[in-house]
Amino acid sequence: MPSRAVHGPARLDELDRAIINRLQDGFPLVPNPFDVVAGELGCSSPALINRVQRLIATGAATRFGPFFDAEAMGGAFCLCAMSVPQDRFNAVAALVNAKPEVAHNYEREHDLNMWFVLAAEEVSQIDEIADRIEQETELAVLRFPKLEEFYIGFKVTA
């Protein structure tokens, strides 16, 4: 995975913090949502969009977008993990991330150093996609399907 220069807390200004805090509370479902949020924060829509892009580019935020519950929409998802040799990590990450079914992918300091989520229209597709990744990488894909759901409402104050 490409590395990003993560800016520490001291590098975020007051508007950056306000944006992070505000966007964790939801995004308006209106024709011009950036206008609404920018108005709340006292900046312009282009400034807000540029700030969000910069926060992601610098690693201060990992993503901006909706979270879809695949199961609620009739689909399936599964947490997966792999043990990837460090010298192959970027190549394997690129291959995994190229799959449209991969929701996100994280590197961890552990024997299982690559963790990602597969989301598909049907449960059977999870194994098909994971099997394809195994064939293409020659590495095992461990699958951890959800047994029970817990909602913790995690939110970070910037």
Can you give me a brief rundown of this structure?
The chain is of the alpha+beta class and 158 residues long.
Which descriptors would you attach to this protein?
158 residues, alpha+beta, Alpha-Beta Plaits, four-stranded antiparallel β-sheet, 4 strands
Q: Which helices and strands, and how do they pair?
A:
Layout: H1 14-23, H2 33-41, H3 45-58, E1 76-82, H4 89-97, E2 102-107, E3 114-120, H5 123-137, E4 142-145
Antiparallel strand pairs: 1-3, 1-4, 2-3
How many β-strand runs?
4
Cα distance, first to last residue? Answer: 25 Å
The fraction of residues in strands falls at 15-25%
**What structural class results from the helix and strand content?**
alpha+beta
Our count of domains comes out at 2
Proportion of helical residues: 25-40%
What is the mean predicted local confidence, pLDDT? Answer: 86
Kindly report the spatial arrangement of strands forming the biggest sheet. Answer: 2-3-1-4
> Helices and strands, in N-to-C order?
HHHEHEEHE
CATH architecture of the largest domain: 2-Layer Sandwich
Gross morphology is globular
Number of alpha- plus pi-helical segments:
5
Which residues sit in consecutive blocks of at least 5 with pLDDT less than 50? 1-7
Oligomeric state of the chains? single chain
Radius of gyration: 18 Å
Predict the CATH topology of the largest domain.
Alpha-Beta Plaits
Q: Can you identify the CATH class of the largest domain?
A: Alpha Beta
